[in-house]
Design goal:
Blueprint (H helix, E strand, L loop, with lengths): L1 E7 L3 H12 L4 E4 L28 H12 L3 E4 L3 E5 L1 H14 L3 E3 L2 E8 L6 E7 L2 E12 L5 H5 L18 E4 L3 H11 L7 E4 L4 E8 L9 H9 L10 E6 L7 E3 L15 H25 L7 E5 L19 H5 L7 E5 L3 E3 L8 E3 L5 E4 L11 E3 L8 H7 L2 H20 L2
Parallel strand pairs: 1-2, 1-8, 2-5, 8-19
Antiparallel strand pairs: 3-4, 6-7, 7-8, 9-13, 9-14, 10-11, 11-12, 12-13, 15-18, 16-17
The protein binds flavin-adenine dinucleotide.
């Protein structure tokens, strides 16, 4: 089998790269390790997609996503006119539909096991494993959107140096069976000055968001409730590290919880398979306590239950590849103009720290451009990356990793490959 492009990883950046490439007529194969598309959005339950700058480019995938999502009532526009409120379950169907519409070949339950470079023309020879079967494929280009740089690892490419700092992972979950109207009314009264709470009664359901973290510099309305729960041993102190609630479109009795944050032990590295596995177990244990806490303390949650636990650990940062250009914090604070821009953003540097009072949210107040060179391997000019593994330093990655930016990265990579393939 011969392809022009293989996209490895059918997650946030991968679906965009494969969709746009196929729409442009590039013969594309999308290889996904799991049985669903969407990655962090669907398997990881990460909603909503945070809004980035209105002057962003390479937003064709996102525009099409809104059209497809609306067919399935899988999207809502809320808070600051952000259209990125998606339903993670329905998006599994939406992404299938999108990829089918552009005739992209998709392989689920498949991973690369070997990749080598052909000395004749520089294309890649790939061995794919699907359960016990092996498939042999040839491709001119690869985009690695596996979020851990799996292809860069196989091809023995270098990664950015690790930073002493680390971002803590989270394991997200959803709670169902909530009387959301009752909860919203209580919340509006409880957080009267609306420091962090938003509520909107839309046509068919209530939309709300609220938060509380252990950062004492912020004025969280829910703080006294969390403090009482810790005192009464309903929660452990670390359970209070970070807690955010978001409504989900077409799930009126369900709320997405951006928690628990999993605090890593000193010296632990999330890339270590044992640290990763312990984090998952710790996360599920915390979910159990947090769900009981909600039931006990929040009016409207009396009959609630855990409806979904994320199938993947929510890792914010692990490997960052070495590209032709490494985007830095300075490029965010003092934006530069680049010749070939992959995307634009004004999203702040958003570091979820491993200790209390240490979270960072640094705004630049500027729109910054990110060049395509951050998506091209320094070692092979036909190997691209997109998503949270972008070639960037620790701080810059913390600003570039949001979903809208990942969508644009996938699209930018696909369009750049198109230009090279067809010399346009
Ligand atoms: C807890 C948490 C909360 C967040 N909150 C928000 C938020 O509210 N809004 C926002 O915009 N962003 C948020 N983010 C950031 C954002 O969701 C991620 O950075 C982004 O989705 C990552 O996209 P990606 O394409 O790099 O990886 P993913 O979307 O994770 O996709 C990677 C894909 O690769 C597949 N894969 C892995 N290995 C292989 C392999 N060897 N072969 C084939 N396939 C493979 C995986 O199965 C997966 O489908 C959050 C992140 C986390 C962790």
């Amino acid at each position: 089998m011969k392809y022009d492009l293989i996209v490895f990883g059918g997650g946030t950046a991968g679906v965009s790269a494969a969709y746009i490439a196929s729409k442009l007529g590039i013969k594309t194969l999308l290889v996904e390790k799991s049985d669903v598309l969407g990655g962090s959005i669907t398997q990881g339950l990460v909603v909503p997609a945070m809004k980035v700058n209105s002057s962003n480019i390479n937003t064709e995938f996102y525009t099409d996503l809104l059209t497809f999502a609306n067919k399935y009532s899988a999207q809502h526009t809320y808070i600051d006119n952000n259209s990125g409120w998606f339903n993670p379950e329905l998006l599994k169907i939406v992404f299938d539909d999108m990829l089918k519409s552009v005739n992209c070949n998709v392989l689920f339950s498949s991973c690369p096991s070997e990749i080598s470079l052909s000395f004749n023309d520089g294309s890649f020879n790939v061995v794919l494993s699907h359960k016990l079967l092996s498939l042999y494929v040839e491709t001119k280009y690869i985009v690695d959107t596996t979020s851990n740089g799996e292809i860069f690892k196989i091809l023995d490419c270098d990664f950015q140096n690790t930073d002493e700092r680390t971002q803590s992972p989270s394991l997200r979950f959803n709670i169902g069976g909530i009387n959301t109207k009752e909860f919203a009314s209580w919340l509006m009264e409880f957080d009267k000055d609306r420091n962090v709470t938003t509520v909107e009664f839309a046509e068919n359901q209530v939309y709300l968001s609220t938060a509380c973290t252990w950062d004492k510099n912020k004025n969280w309305a829910l703080s006294p409730i969390f403090a009482e729960a810790v005192e009464k041993k309903v929660l452990e102190y670390e359970d209070t590290a970070y807690f955010q609630l978001f409504s989900i479109p077409s799930m009126p009795d369900c709320i997405a919880v951006n928690a628990p944050r999993i605090i890593l032990d000193e010296g632990d590295d999330i890339r270590d398979p044992f640290v990763y596995s312990r984090a998952l177990m710790k996360g599920r244990e915390r979910i159990c306590r947090l769900a009981e806490f909600c039931k006990k303390y929040f009016p409207g949650f009396e009959n609630s239950y855990i409806s979904h636990i994320s199938d993947m650990l929510g890792v914010r940062e692990s490997y960052r590849v070495k590209g032709l250009y490494t985007f830095t914090k300075d490029d965010i604070i003092h934006p530069k103009k680049f010749e070939n821009v992959a995307f634009c953003s004004d999203y702040p540097i958003d570091i979820h720290s491993n200790s209390s009072n240490d979270d960072e949210l640094e705004f630049s107040n500027n729109t910054y451009q990110v060049p395509i060179e951050c998506l091209i391997s320094e070692k092979y000019n036909n190997l691209y990356c997109a998503g949270r593994i972008i070639s960037a330093d620790f701080d810059a990655q913390a600003a570039l990793r949001t979903q809208m930016s990942c969508f644009s990265m996938g699209e930018a990579a696909a369009k750049d490959i198109y230009k090279k393939l067809f010399s346009v």
